[in-house]
Design a protein that fits this description.
Elements lengths: L8 H37 L7 H26 L9 H20 L3 H27 L6 H19 L3 H31 L3
Length: 199
């Protein structure tokens, strides 16, 4: 098993650390996300329009929380792997915030389209922002944005599928979604660090 995908034991340990750190980051941010979603639900139940400035702010805020909490966990996982891992946190926060802001702008005209875009948008903008940092310590970051888009889309679908049963399992659903993101991006990052790390 340790030779699968060419990974050695230390690379498998990094993949495990990355996956756990991403899942924990997602879970730590989940109470704030649930709170923001609760506010959106209240606005909708009061008959207020969701296509307004409040929705723009809430989309931006949720994605800032996602980018920051996951970026923090991933920064911890990168310690000892790369130089200046602390750069990962601010670019993750900025990427998440920008993705949320753009989805929020779309929500001003179509909430349904914004909802669909929100499935992959965190992956697109986090991937692009994080790739800027990856290039500092990798010769190339092949597939990073694609891995992010795939992982975030799968995680969002898992999150939506679990919404019906979220009463007592909220943290488990967020943990599982974060683990999906961590596993898919972690496989890509572990492979990149193995093959393209700058000396």
């Amino acid at each position: 098993m340790s030779k699968y995908m060419g990974f050695r034991r230390k690379e498998w340990l990094f993949l495990l650390r990355w996956t756990v750190a991403t899942a924990m980051g997602c879970t730590v941010g989940s109470p704030f996300i649930v709170g923001v979603l609760f506010v959106v639900g209240l606005a909708a139940s009061d008959g207020g329009s969701l296509g307004n400035l409040t929705t723009l702010i809430l989309f931006t805020l949720v994605n800032f929380i996602i980018g920051t909490s996951i970026g923090f966990g991933q920064t911890l996982a990168l310690i000892g792997q790369v130089k200046q891992p602390v750069l990962w946190l601010p670019v993750s926060s900025v990427g998440g915030t920008l993705g949320g802001f753009l989805v929020g702008l779309v929500s001003l005209t179509s909430f349904q389209l914004a909802f669909l875009l929100s499935l992959a948008m965190p992956g697109i903008f986090l991937g692009i922002a994080q790739k800027v940092v990856l290039i500092k310590f990798l010769k190339k970051a092949t597939g990073w944005v694609i891995a992010n888009i795939i992982s975030w889309t799968f995680a969002q679908v898992l999150l939506l599928a679990g919404r019906a049963n979220m009463d007592g399992n909220r943290l488990i659903i967020f943990l599982a979604s974060g683990a999906v993101i961590g596993l898919i991006t972690g496989i890509n990052l572990t492979w990149l660090l193995k093959n393209f790390k700058k000396e």
